[in-house]
Design brief:
By secondary structure, the protein is mainly alpha-helical. It is built from 17 helices and 9 strands. Strand 4 (232-238) and strand 5 (243-248) form a beta hairpin. The longest helix is centred in the last third of the chain and has 39 residues, at 460-498. 27% of the residues are buried.
């Protein structure tokens, strides 16, 4: 086996799996020596990226290994994007070697000291960036693949990256689009302004199905399948997980897909039966539109429709945020987490749990912002920044789940039994908000009727008990009504101060 400390001009292992036959040259034999690979020349249906670049890896032995790794990944079905990420990690290692005086002339010289130096280099140049962890993870995969497949025999056993070498992952920030923004994006008048029928349908699929953009643009015309009851599903290839996925769709989206198929077939571009086949034909043939071209069109459309966030600033919209939005919407609708995981085709519950955390954060924010009153109509003040804020919110969430009421929430610890036989409107642990004003008004009508009937029958005790409830209801409704009427004025004042 040839080691890579001194690589000859032509390495035996750089040849393609199939040899030359006469004057015929296989695509891999033609592309492998180049510093830039074109995916379509290799027969790979590239999506958002179509080229892999090696020109910045200046060390011949390292470049040859990077190429072999990229070729292996592509032939196992991974995307061009995956090969690009891996190549960039090797490129970063090459740049690190350029910046150091360490005597690294081949794989035999990559020991733990070199690895630690590379980790320090990455921290200096990309700390805090998403690429930081990605570069480490990709280079670790590079080392493991070389060792596992025996591509080199002299890689030291200390050339390893451990779990503790990765930087601490920062808390994921919410990426779901707000309903204020989504209302503008889903407005039929705005959707009609998107000039390309390709892009309009892609937008609908992203919003309603939560697919990744790379999987969406690669859909084929046979993407609709049905169950035994005739219900329609969108069938797609999940390139990240390398498996087929299905997601239920409604009749409107099914009709839109049928119309898209008719449109594509009318253009004559039916060679590969692609749903989003573009009209341009290059030297490698016609393929589907790229994810990057859709992303650019999405940004232009958002600007042209003047889509803004709640503060009036231009909304930041990207294809993947539609996926986060669908996940958050489903969780907020109390769809079981396992069902959400299957719809989004997550490989683990951990990713889906992120949407559940976002849902809880949203609910908590609204709860803390809402004016809360107790059974006597007095305002209840809860400190969201107090030392027991997290514990108090956990108690509220538990109370909502185990002691739900039609007109508010119970603040009694679940370990206790309620001592009040009457309705919660006479309970000191009762808390309610303006969300329940309709129920309070309806309840008041019923209480007035009960009091009138009790007085007519001479049932003074029953009348007195319900009179207390009526008094509390009147105070609650008055307090919450004042809050509801004051809210628009506050919002107007905030808008005035903001100059809107």
């Amino acid at each position: 086996m040839t080691t890579l400390n001194s690589v000859p001009a032509r390495d035996d292992w750089t040849a393609a799996p199939t040899g030359k036959v006469g004057r015929n040259v296989t695509p891999w034999e033609a592309e492998f020596p180049k510093d830039v690979w074109h995916a379509r020349a290799l027969g790979i249906a590239a999506r958002s990226q179509v080229t892999v670049h090696f020109e910045n890896i200046t060390r011949h032995w390292l470049k040859q290994l990077a190429k072999r790794w990229a070729r292996w990944r592509l032939t196992t079905g991974l995307t061009v994007e995956s090969a690009v990420l891996g190549t960039k990690a090797v490129e970063s290692f090459n740049a690190f070697l350029d910046s150091t005086k360490m005597p690294v002339h081949g794989t035999a010289d990559i020991d733990r000291e070199v690895i630690e130096g590379f980790l320090a280099y990455l921290h200096t140049h990309s700390a805090g960036a998403t690429s930081h962890r990605t570069r480490i993870g990709q280079f670790n995969t590079f080392l493991l693949t070389m060792r596992r497949h025996g591509w080199v025999t002299n890689l030291p056993s200390t050339a390893q990256i451990y779990t503790e070498d990765y930087p601490k992952e920062t808390a994921r920030q919410p990426r779901a689009l707000s309903e204020h923004v989504m209302a503008q994006l889903e407005n039929p008048e705005n959707l009609a302004k998107m000039p390309s029928p390709h892009h309009r349908l892609i937008t609908l699929i992203l919003i309603r199905c939560g697919l990744r953009i790379s999987d969406t643009v690669a859909l084929t015309q046979d993407c609709i399948t049905r169950d035994k009851d005739g219900a329609a599903y969108l069938r797609y290839l999940n390139h990240k997980m390398k498996r087929e996925g299905v997601v239920p769709i409604d009749e409107e989206l099914e009709r839109a897909i049928a119309e898209q198929i008719s449109y594509v077939n009318s253009t004559g571009n039916t060679g590969k039966r692609l749903l989003f086949a573009h009209d341009r034909v290059d030297v490698y043939g016609a393929g589907h539109i790229s994810g990057s071209s859709y992303s650019a069109a999405l940004r232009r459309w958002v600007r042209s429709c003047n889509v803004t966030d709640e503060n009036g600033a231009p909304a930041m919209v990207s294809p993947h945020r539609f996926r986060h939005t669908l996940g958050t919407r489903l969780i907020n609708l109390d769809v079981p987490q396992e069902v959400v995981r299957r719809i989004l085709d997550h490989d683990s519950h951990q990713m889906t749990a992120h949407y559940a955390r976002l849902s809880d954060t949203t609910i908590r924010r609204h709860w803390e912002a809402a004016r809360k009153v107790n059974a006597s109509g007095s305002v209840v003040e809860l400190d969201p920044d107090g030392p027991l804020a997290e514990a108090a919110w956990a108690k509220q969430r538990l109370g909502r789940a185990t002691q739900a009421l039609p007109n508010g929430y119970c603040g009694l610890p679940v370990q206790k039994t309620c001592p009040h036989a009457n309705a919660c409107l006479t309970c000191p642990m009762f808390i309610t908000t303006a969300d329940f004003l309709p129920q309070h008004r309806e309840h008041r009508v019923q209480v007035v009727q009960i009091i009138s009937a009790a007085e007519a029958r001479g049932q003074q005790r029953l009348a007195e008990m319900n009179t207390r409830v009526l008094d509390n209801l009147d105070r609650i409704i008055e307090t919450l009504d004042n809050e509801a009427s004051a809210a628009p004025n506050r919002n107007q004042k905030e808008d005035d101060r903001a100059g809107r």
